[in-house]
Amino acid sequence: xxxxxxxxxxxxxxxxxxxxxxxxxxxxxxxxxxxxxxxxxxxxxxxxxxxxxxxxxxxxxxxxxxxxxxxxxxxxxxxxxxxxxxxxxxxxxxxxxxxxxxxxxxxxxxxxxxxxxxxxxxxxxxxxxxxxxxxxxxxxxxxxxxxxxxxxxxxxxxxxxxxxxxxxxxxxxxxxxxxxxxxxxxxxxxxxxxxxxxxxxxxxxxxxxxxxxxxxxxxxxxxxxxxxxxxxxxxxxxxxxxxxxxxxxxxxxxxx
Length: 256
What we know:
The structure is a single chain. The chain is mainly alpha-helical. It has one domain. It has eight helices and seven strands. It has a three-stranded antiparallel sheet. A two-stranded antiparallel ribbon has the order 1-2. It has a two-stranded antiparallel sheet with strand order 3-4. Helix 1 (22-44) packs parallel to helix 8 (223-246), helix 4 (138-158) packs antiparallel against helix 5 and helix 5 (170-187) packs antiparallel against helix 8. It starts with 6 loop residues before the first strand and ends with a strand. Residues 1-11 have low confidence and may be disordered.
């Protein structure tokens, strides 16, 4: 049986004529590639600082073994990569995000892979059982993500400080772009929108909350674009700093 949209249904099987599989394939390649790279970069424990640039995967540095410690809460007994202490927090926020759930459910679990395409799993129970029930912690991971975001803003400001002199390097521009994209993604999150005022029944006598809610709504309209752009750029930021630290590339700078 054919439908007006060009989709042919045969029993319980749907045969689409378009390239419906491209979108879930992109999710697998980009998300899978990011997880592999972020895992490797976090365990590498080296080349994450090129003065004055600190990789976002290692910020804030919470151990004394950091090349550039931010807040050395852990003593010298910690001899593993300092990124292990922090990288899980922003990843937890990102991968419990409502938009990313849609993406990797379609790409990795094929549930569903696309509109009018049957689900691959037959026993999927939604987010009511372990491990998917952990997704409900998303609003709490937001609080940690905001704290990390504040530190990343400080890192971006520090990227203008070249041994006590004001300057701008290509790394400075990249770090500022990274934190701007992360801010747009974080503050446009559904949980952030709810937190600043979405739960209120009335905005009467709450004009500030209304303005914050309005700004969050504007960011949320492009939430998918903020999500992908920030994901790619945060990885490129680490890669750029890593290449500079290794001496593979030279960071062009202007210093006053």
